[in-house]
Amino acid sequence: MNTDTYKEIMSLSRMTVGELREKYLEVFGEETRSHHKDFLRKRIAWRLQALAEGDLSERARRRAEERDHLAWLFTRLLVLSESRGPHATGVAWLNRDGEHRLFKRPVPAGQFVTDKAFQEVLAGMDNRATLLVGHTRWRTRGDERINRNNHPIRAGDVIGTHNGTIYNADHLFRRLRLKRFAEVDSEILFRLADRAFRDETPDLERFKRDLALCRGQITAVLASRRQPGTVLVLKGNKPLELRIHRRHRAVLYASDPAFLDAVLADERGWRPLLLEPMTMLVFRHESLMEFSRESFTFIAQGKRARPPGAPVPGYSVPGSSFKDKV
Q1: Residue 321: CB atoms within 10 Å
Q2: Predicted confidence (pLDDT) per residue in 312-321, tens digit
Q3: 57 pLDDT band (50/70/90 cuts)?
Q4: Between vectors from CA 128 to CA 88 and to CA 321, what angle results, nearest 5°?
Q5: How far apart are CA 312 and CA 14, in angstroms?
Q6: Which candidate, 159, 192, 204, 125, places its Cα nearest to that of 318?
Q7: In whole angstroms, what is the distance from residue 117 CA to residue 106 CA?
């Protein structure tokens, strides 16, 4: 990189959002809808360097832009979800080669997304990605200062997030003689999934038999490093809203539809993906739009009764996205 280009890129850090939008128009020759300062800086810096040293192919440029835009939507959705879980935040991605990154901290999402490590995790994701998932946690069982209690949770080769409480988790860990790494009940769900992902294709019937043993509330998103091209979305008796985009070949989800509506207010092409309770969606990397639906059951139980004066429990809520390659 020559000296003039380096100085021009460094000057971006001193620009306001309005100035960055003008600079974007100057270097790209078109306006941007984004008002996200970090996103604009990154895109402009990339463009300045490409102009100085040689551009990428048009296809590669568009794929990189699309990936960055989806990551920006994901970040906004994660921050909005803070209101549903302020005690810890986490993010993970998985690619089709089984590689993954996982980062979580006992801080609210607004603080989490300013962490340099969070930006590095997103920057490490490329077009091989099959899953990008985030979570904001409201502490119930398990101290959030012990990071293994926070989501996303990795259990064996499975990575995922869970909304709800599984009241008989302790019993199932003992009965099935499963390894346990964290204090949170959510881990049992991913240990059960890991049993189903041991062969070349996931054994969904086994997973559904194991799910039937659980008692409580379940809504979750998960995938395995063994079959990274398959993503499972489970909507049980906790809220879950999804939006799907055909051209992006991507799905966004959240516990509250208002979060999705806010993030996608100025976006085009996103459509609701209706999902009935007690339904599992099976998405496959090679054909995201051709997903399948499976019914599943478990022992649904609402929140346990509280004695007078007992503190009101919270709950963990996923607020995240997953996507096919872009």
Answers
A1: 26
A2: 333 333 344 5
A3: low
A4: 35
A5: 45
A6: 159
A7: 14
pLDDT band at 306 (very low <50, low <70, confident <90, very high): very low
Q: Which amino acid is at 258?
A: A
Q: What pLDDT does 50 receive?
A: 75
Read off the amino acid at residue 98: G
Smallest Cα–Cα separation from 317: which of 71, 89, 74, 75? 89
| Rg, the chain, Cα only | 21
Q: Helix, strand or coil for residue 191?
A: helix
What CA–CA distance (Å, rounded) separates 128 from 125? 8
The CA distance from 326 to 62, in Å, is 9
Rounded Cα–Cα distance for residues 18 and 35 (Å): 8
Residues in the chain: 326
Residue 213 token pair = 């043993």
Alpha helix (H) ranges present in the chain? 3-11, 17-28, 37-53, 58-80, 109-112, 116-123, 169-176, 187-196, 204-211, 257-263
- Could you tell me the pTM of the whole model? 0.77
Count CA atoms closer than 13 A to 47's CA, side-chain side.
Answer: 19
Distance, in Å, from the CA atom of 86 to the CA atom of 108, rounded to the nearest integer, reads 5
141 vs 281, which has greater pLDDT?
Answer: 281
Residue 290 DSSP label: G
DSSP string, 52-120: HH-PPPHHHHHHHHHHHHHHHHHHHHHHHGGGG--SEEEEEEEETTS-EEEEEESS-HHHHTTSHHHHH
